[in-house]
Design goal:
Helices cover 73% and strands 0% of the residues. The chain is mainly alpha-helical. Among the domains are: 55 residues, no CATH class; 97 residues, no CATH class. The longest helix is centred in the last third of the chain and has 15 residues. This is Pentatricopeptide repeat-containing protein. One of its GO terms (molecular function) is RNA binding.
């Protein structure tokens, strides 16, 4: 029950029950409590229990590392990983993706390469999740040749593999490669997910490819089965704004069914300033004032 609960209130009730039953200090129970608090993103409680747990298996470190990584707390995630290595705990196949994700966020290429070496030494070279994580890490660290090498040597690739490589290409401004991969995914009938479409729309925005961006955005739900999210609208507003199509960008925002955020509004206001669209800026500011 402890390992499966996602409700914080329910978890605290269970924790209180273990204290009343005088079993909360048992190694097995405390280990499960740490994992459960981590899965609920309650990192303070998870860490307190962790440091008072006499038995700290690799799985317990994994729980903390995954939770920090999921919360984009990359420094904390890597700190726990280093603590695990110092404690001479063996690491398993499950720990590499979240650690590589943290390496990506911090551009820690040195640790990423070391993990790749450990990945090969331990015989994980055919593992799909780890290969995808390596592609993301190398791509975000600007090492596209290494990312491509991992991709080429994969025995099996999925849409996640293509999307991971595409993200790396986009970060490096490799526009042609982004669209070659995207077109190949479409031709092969692969699943096109929201991450892939964000990458394509970001590329269109950066390169001023307005018609291409509009075409992809309009086909998202009908052709690819992906309902546009806030990040997709933000890409579109940024793209239309850069092209000076302020009225169109404002109309798009007004037609949204999603709750907007300041990133989107700032993109619209910044474009208004650049193109001198005072009337649109005033409408946006009135709507912002009305929200506060």
């Amino acid at each position: 029950m402890l390992s499966s609960t996602k409700s914080l209130q329910k978890l605290k009730q269970i924790h209180a029950r273990t204290i009343l039953l005088n079993i909360s200090s048992h190694s097995f129970v405390r280990t499960k409590l740490v994992s459960a608090y981590a899965s609920c993103s309650q990192m303070r409680e998870a860490h307190i229990l962790f440091f008072f747990t006499s038995r700290q298996p690799t799985s317990l470190y994994n729980s903390l590392i995954r939770a920090h990584s999921a919360l984009n707390q990359s420094s904390q995630s890597l700190a726990i990983f280093h603590h695990m290595i110092i404690a001479q705990k063996p690491f398993d196949i499950l720990i590499l993706p979240p650690v590589l994700k943290s390496c990506s966020h911090l551009s820690d290429l040195t640790l990423g390469r070391q993990l790749h070496g450990a990945f090969l030494v331990n015989g994980y070279s055919s593992d799909l999740a780890n290969n995808n994580s390596l592609i993301r890490m190398y791509g975000k660290c600007g090492e596209w040749e290494c990312a491509m090498k991992v991709f080429d040597e994969m025995p099996v690739r999925t849409y996640v593999s293509y999307s991971a490589l595409m993200v790396g290409y986009e970060k490096l401004g490799m526009t042609l490669e982004v669209f070659i991969l995207f077109d190949k995914m479409v031709e092969m009938g692969m699943e096109i997910d929201d991450v892939t479409l964000t990458t394509v729309l970001t590329t269109c925005s950066r390169e001023g490819m307005v018609e291409k961006g509009k075409d992809v955005f309009e086909k998202m739900e009908e052709r690819f089965g992906v309902k546009p999210k806030l990040e997709h609208y933000t890409c579109m507003v940024d793209m239309l704004g850069k092209a000076g199509l302020m009225e169109e960008a404002d109309e798009l925002v007004m037609g949204m069914e999603l709750e907007t955020d300041m990133v989107l509004w700032n993109a619209l206001l910044a474009a208004c300033r650049v193109h001198g669209k005072v009337e649109v800026a005033e409408r946006v500011e009135r709507r912002l004032v009305g929200r506060t």
